[in-house]
Design a protein that fits this description.
Length: 166
């Protein structure tokens, strides 16, 4: 980890918010969009059918991802395919559905935290660490850092929320 999590946190690159990632899927204007691969080499698919010229998703896609009871399966990488500790119903939702339907939740912030770790080499967590933190919190409700401090889902959510610059 690039910051001492037992005291005041020194941020490197703060990263982008979940709100950014739920609309901006392709690089545009210097911002990265969704990561092109995970640290495990698997592809991360947003599932948007129509990406506009500025890298954002269409209104029809926003409506599809927001629908809690879609008529057809929604394409994209499942939350549970990335975070093995996730339980249904969130595990079976796509990452994009989590961003559109679970605003403010730990899972909502976990997507941005993980994407930021993949997109920015100087983010406060490296991808493997971010992945481990998220899976630990999903499995047990907390994460214990190298200093023995236990971080709850709400504490970790607050930490990453305070680091967003967009």
């Amino acid at each position: 980890m690039s910051g001492n999590m037992s005291g005041p946190v020194q941020y490197c690159v703060g990263g982008l918010s979940p709100g950014y990632y739920k609309s901006n899927v392709e690089p545009h204007g210097g911002d990265p969009g969704w990561p092109t691969s995970t640290h495990m080499g698997a592809s991360i698919e947003h599932g948007a059918a129509n990406v506009l010229g500025n890298g954002t998703i269409s209104r029809a896609d926003k409506e599809r991802f927001s629908d809690p009871n879609p008529a057809a399966p929604v394409p994209g990488t499942k939350f549970g395919a990335i975070f093995s500790s996730a339980e249904d119903p969130i595990a079976s939702m796509t990452l994009m559905q989590v961003l559109w339907q679970k605003s403010g939740s730990f899972e909502f912030h976990a997507v941005a935290m993980y994407f930021n770790s993949l997109n920015f080499s100087s983010y406060m967590f490296k991808p493997a660490v971010a992945h481990s933190i998220i899976n630990s919190i999903l499995a047990t409700g907390s994460y214990i850092d190298q200093n023995g401090h236990s971080w709850s889902a709400d504490e970790m959510k607050t930490l990453v929320d305070q680091s967003y610059h967009t």
